[in-house]
Amino acid sequence: MALDRKTTPNDLNAFWMPFTANRQFKKNPRMFVGAKDMHYTTADGRQVLDGTAGLWCCNAGHCRPKITEAIARQAAELDYAPAFQMGHPAAFELANRLIEIAPKGIEHVFYTNSGSESVETALKLAIAYHRARGEGARTRLIGRERGYHGVNFGGISVGGIVTNRKVFGSLLTGVDHMPHTHLPALNAFTKGQPEHGANLADELERIVTLHGAETIAAVIVEPMAGSTGVLLPPKGYLERLRAITKKHGILLIFDEVITGFGRLGSAFASQHYDVLPDMMTTAKGLTNGVIPMGAVLTTAEIHDAFMTGPENMIELFHGYTYSGNPIASAAGIATLEVYKEEGLFARAAEMAPYWQEAIHSLRGLPHVIDIRNEGLIGAVELQGIDGAPTKRAFEAFLRAYEKGILIRTTGDIIAMSPPLIISKAEIDTLIGTLANVLKTLP
């Protein structure tokens, strides 16, 4: 009998899987072979409800015809074009459409290939911007504890997830961190933004006093921290952070790789929270996760600082082979059209109250010590097992998969962020199945 390579690879050894317990996985593989709308299809023919939009990225659901057809057309017409000293129409069209939905004041787009590269680009732009303005001493970068900004050296340097940092050496110099905003003793089981913790933004003033404002280039935060377990900004926190950075001439970068493209009910979290940063990093939902692509969105002030000197000279010595790739650009345009035609951002806002009540219905189940939510994102924090961190949540992940739902875990936190097309009935299935899983955990 011939081996079906689509569903049963002949050897799992060669692929070193990212962020995966490789040995555990390869003993009992979990293989997806198809996807449509809200569901994955497994190698053994089961349907699995996607409670995580892939990796926070498939906001419009899976295998949407408008997007897949746009990719096929573009691949047949223009497969690749260099972005250095050359262009193609789709990259410019996508940039224009991004600016149309971006917060007022954001005017330019620099393409990358991922959230990690978007972060690296934003950090480089921040330092180079100050140098272009004659403030070359501003090289220090400030992140936040438990922050996630991708996996490149800059991203893990400003990031604050310990396991992502500790085995990779000393990282970038000149980096400091503000405290995270997770205050379970004060804010447990909050619905939406918590009441307590805005004062944590004032820690930036302490860091400024320590290092001197004249040495600090930028502060980077996720408006709502996703990968660390859904940590919400306390009421007034982001506003205070914006005021402090403005006061000291420090750039504020919002990492919107997760929160961008409707996740909180607005195109971007900066609109949801009504706080305008100087730069926004994006990826994931930009192309619905179908083709790798990222983008840094900036104000005119950032862009224009580089537009000096002779016109024939390169203004910024930075970019990627695949910046503005034609096929990715086509995917991005089609994705934005799907969002608009189906009103998915507004739909997320409309579904958020139902989602909120559903996820908070898990309160009181075994081991549940906190629940948090905003837009169509939610987290269920479990009491860890003494001496075995992450084990209980990982067991929940495995049991959930067997029962037909896909969830994510980070530490002992279950995180969910379903596609924005999810129905109330599918929310009931997702949360109801998770409730049954929680009831069976040791």
From TrEMBL:
<comment type="similarity">
    <text>Belongs to the class-III pyridoxal-phosphate-dependent aminotransferase family.</text>
</comment>
<dbReference type="InterPro" id="IPR015424">
    <property type="entry name" value="PyrdxlP-dep_Trfase"/>
</dbReference>
<dbReference type="InterPro" id="IPR049704">
    <property type="entry name" value="Aminotrans_3_PPA_site"/>
</dbReference>
<keyword id="KW-0032">Aminotransferase</keyword>
<dbReference type="InterPro" id="IPR005814">
    <property type="entry name" value="Aminotrans_3"/>
</dbReference>
<keyword id="KW-0808">Transferase</keyword>
<dbReference type="Pfam" id="PF00202">
    <property type="entry name" value="Aminotran_3"/>
</dbReference>
<dbReference type="GO" id="GO:0004015">
    <property type="term" value="F:adenosylmethionine-8-amino-7-oxononanoate transaminase activity"/>
</dbReference>
<dbReference type="InterPro" id="IPR015422">
    <property type="entry name" value="PyrdxlP-dep_Trfase_small"/>
</dbReference>
<dbReference type="GO" id="GO:0009102">
    <property type="term" value="P:biotin biosynthetic process"/>
</dbReference>
<keyword id="KW-0663">Pyridoxal phosphate</keyword>
<dbReference type="GO" id="GO:0030170">
    <property type="term" value="F:pyridoxal phosphate binding"/>
</dbReference>
<dbReference type="InterPro" id="IPR015421">
    <property type="entry name" value="PyrdxlP-dep_Trfase_major"/>
</dbReference>
<protein>
    <submittedName>
        <fullName>Aminotransferase class-III</fullName>
    </submittedName>
</protein>
